[in-house]
Amino acid sequence: MASSTSELNRLATSITCHAWNGDRSKIALCPNDNTVHIYAKTGATYNLEQVLEQHDQVVTGIDWAPKTDRIVTSSQDRNAYVWKKVDNVWKPTLVILRINRAATHVKWSPSENKFAVASGAKCVSVCYFEEENDWWVSKHIKKHKSTVLKVDWHPNNVLLVTGSSDFKARVFSAYIKDVDGKPVQTPFGTKTPFGDLFSEIDAPGWIHSVKWSPSGNKIAFAGHDSSINFADITSNPPNVQRIRLPLLPFRDLLFLSEKSVVAVGEDANPCLFTSNDSGEWTFISEMDKKDTAAAGPAKDSARDIFTRKDTLGTDNANDTKVNTQHQNCITCIAPVSTAADKVTDFSTSGLDGSLVVWHTKALEAKLKNLKIV
């Protein structure tokens, strides 16, 4: 199914998370179980190529390194695997995380020489490849008081931001001398020993998502109190702006540019926020607005009516539908294509099993007050 503003494909009963390869010809997704499905995209068609079956419990995170073409996955089974393609088949390598609770999220660093795994063990495992022993090992970043739900890497490959259910966003150093080499300049200086806490920002709810801006000067994070927060880390302490909306909580965020952010979550509708030249952020609009012209009522079979009465307690199909592309919570958002330092297309997946690719230029043309800056 396609429209001028988006392309919708239903690839599973439910989707936990997804990630694209470097040229966006393939996508890896978790259908809310212990497997990862690899699809090849040809035009608007998705063909299942391989199912990765190594985890024992639900996969909570997937990230696909665009340069090295390696996939990393994390799971509630407390494990992470790095997958590499050998003879056209994806082969897993177990990562030693050393955690006793579920892994909740995983993210490759920009240089793809290490990755971070968030967990319910109140820590983040920063993993890197040890050449001498030919395996992936980890070092722990602690100082959290509850489950770490999301992580994201600064563009400099050293700083790491974490979002936790202890109502705080934190910025740490994830510098590893043997991997990163000479220390680099950061907004907090060049002295960055591993695990050092540089900033701690309070939130009024547990944090579902954290993201760095493309410049690495700003952090956006979404709280369970239906707020989105923007922190400028170039000031000390960071200057924080909070926007709370009469919506359900956001679950994931994406910077389209330095001044535009899309938030997605339990309202099943992407929301655009933009910043002016003074750094003040504003909620612009929901991005999924369908035309109000109604089609004629569909004629259901007696079997369809009986099934709805049995499973949903109603014979009205419209009682379970919302007026958006996604019919349930959006759990993941990812960039698809960029131009002139702006994300022009992005994808969302959700608990309804749908994958939607959104086209920002078409959305700008359709919605008068929507402008990506």
Number of strands: 28
Strand order across the largest sheet: 1-28-27-26
Radius of gyration: 21 Å
- Class inferred from helices and paired strands: mainly beta
Q: What is the percentage of strand-forming residues?
A: over 45%
Arithmetic mean of pLDDT: 92
How would you describe the shape? globular
Q: Low-confidence stretches at least 5 residues in length (pLDDT < 50)?
A: 292-298
Distance between the termini: 29 Å
Main sheet makeup: 4 strands, antiparallel
- How many helices? The count is 3
Helicity, as a percent range: under 10%
Describe what you observe in this structure:
By secondary structure, the chain is mostly beta strands. It is built from three helices and 28 strands. It has helices at residues 177-180, 302-312, 360-366; strands spanning 6-10, 17-20, 26-30, 35-42, 45-53, 59-64, 71-75, 80-86, 89-95, 103-108, 114-119, 124-130, 135-141, 148-153, 159-164, 168-173, 197-202, 207-212, 218-223, 227-232, 239-244, 250-257, 260-265, 271-275, 281-286, 330-339, 342-350, 354-359. Strands 1-28-27-26 form a four-stranded antiparallel beta sheet. Strands 2-3-4-5 form a four-stranded antiparallel beta sheet, with no helix packed on it. The protein has a four-stranded antiparallel beta sheet with strand order 6-7-8-9, with no helix packed on it.
